[in-house]
Amino acid sequence: MSRDQFIKMRGAWDTRHWITVPGLSHEADGLQLEQSLVALEGVQGVQLVAGKRRIRVTYDQTRVDFQQILERMESIGFPASDSWWSLRKAAWFQYLDRNARENANAPEPPCCSNPKGISTGRKQKK
What CATH number is associated with residue 16? Predict the structure, then answer.
């Protein structure tokens, strides 16, 4: 899927990330990995690049997070790379997912045309 196709069809909380998988050596491994990840609720697609031992996972951040994807990969025998850079990216992606989930579930903020909640905690003067 190209970048333009992704932008046209994605939801507000959809994201996609590249993951290096050292154990991904041929197409059959990739298909097994793809089937397992797509079975997770919220994962919308997996793009394989077997020659470079990488996958690109597209998912909804409000339904699944990066850590759950990594755990599923490890449980079927295809752990992600544990290089310094991969671990830093994984921590950042997990932070982004947690932040997106919190924002998606946050109450609607007050607005100038809808001031509910602005004066909560203050007493009204008469």
Answer: 3.30.70.100
In a domain, 97, yes or no: no
E strand spans, the chain: 14-20, 43-49, 54-60
Say how far apart CA 64 and CA 118 lie, in whole Å: 33
Residue (of 34, 32, 52, 30) closest to 43 by Cα position: 34
In a domain, 73, yes or no: yes
Please report whether residue 28 resides in a domain.
Answer: yes
CA dihedral 42, 47, 51, 54 (to 10 degrees): -40
Domain that holds residue 58: 3-87
Q: Give the tens place of pLDDT for each residue, 5-26.
A: 555 556 778 899 999 999 888 8
pTM of the model: 0.76
7: tokens are: 């932008």
CA 78 → CA 27, 71, 75, 81, distances in Å? Answer: 13, 10, 7, 9
40-83 pLDDT, tens digit each: 999 998 988 878 899 999 999 989 999 999 999 999 999 999 99
Number of domains in the chain: 1
